[in-house]
Write the structure tokens for this entry.
Amino acid sequence: MPVQPGITLKLFLAILAASMVAAAAMALATRYSFHSGFLGYLAQVDEQRLQALSGALAEDYRRTGSWEFVRGDYARLREIAIAASSPQVTQRLTVLDEARAVVVGNPDPAGAALLPVKVGSRVVGWVGRAPLRRLSSAAEDSFEAQQSRAAWAIAALAVALAAATALVLARAFLLPVKRIAQATHRMAGGDYAIRVTVGARDELGRLAADFNRLAETLERNETLRRRFMADVSHELRTPLAVLSAELEALDDGVRPFTREALASLRAEAAALGKLVDDLNQLALADVGALAYRKQEVALAPLIEQAVDSYRERFAQRGIALEAGGAAAARVFGDRDRLTQMFRNLLENSARYTDAGGRARVSTRLAGDCVAVDFDDSPPGVPAEALPHLFERFFRVEGSRSRANGGAGLGLAISRSIAAAHGGDISAAPSPLGGLRITVRLPVSP
């Protein structure tokens, strides 16, 4: 398989080719400009010499009174031109009389530069010289050839300098690209900790910054994936271990098969089923397959229904539960999913609020959104833990103890439901001394 040229060579050749074209165009333009300009310069010199010849012819015409002194005698015309200090102007000459009839010289003076021959104020004739279309002397030809060689030599030197500059620029421009390419190969091999240096603010700098953000995202996702697998295995292992121990105790006769034993087995099976169901809902939400049947619904009845279903639960722990707010708020959403989200948030307050405390659910309008605040009394949540509350299996206490129950998935599911409704969910310290969780949903127009 033939080896393909690298991008450095391609960029070098592209810059070099552009420089060669520019140098060649400059050389040709310089040669053309010099040729036409030099001929123009010679024409101006000829005009100045013709003025001297015109004065000499006028003097001879005044003396003889006609053009007979030079009619048909080109040799005599050359002698007059030489005598008039114009020895270079002895070719392509034409003399016309007052009626512009040819006296001597070129019988077809078309295109010649004509100067009047005046005796006093009277124009008695014209003298001219055919235009110079090419260099006429060996010196002039040699000078033109020398200038042409100089132009091409300068062009060659410019191409050589362009080649050296192109090589340096190609390496300098592509050095960041090579670094990013090498880092990409390492990241493709699983090294998500790799970063590249952002040394500029141009497109390559933005590319390097985007690569670093991508690496950070992949590293974070990999960390979350590993932690998620560890958390899932831990959460599944606990109820399975309890079920296995209970069944072994019943099988060995250590524990009698009673209603209490059966209720314990059912509780562990229900906890296991709840965990599997929560994981399934999160998986469906991640792939966008969680079903939503949205319609315009009043928010207050949904909150009231969720609160009523938890009043007894809060009362058992001696927690006072309050509810109130903007009753007219309406949103476009799924009634069942919104109720599920509110119950998850109430369940979170019921589990982690100290007995004898307070909990409050309030609704308020915030611009074009309706905000539902779930406040509870101590214990609160450390500020550094607030951004992580909605991560899967996250628990503030940092241990995997099941003393408070739950698998740490309720808030993650609530975040997915809020996002599916075009809203968001956040956590902050509560005025009651505990935690405030705020759900914001767009108001139905």
Remarks:
- The longest helix spans residues 7-64.
- The domain at 294-442 is CATH 3.30.565.10 (Heat Shock Protein 90).
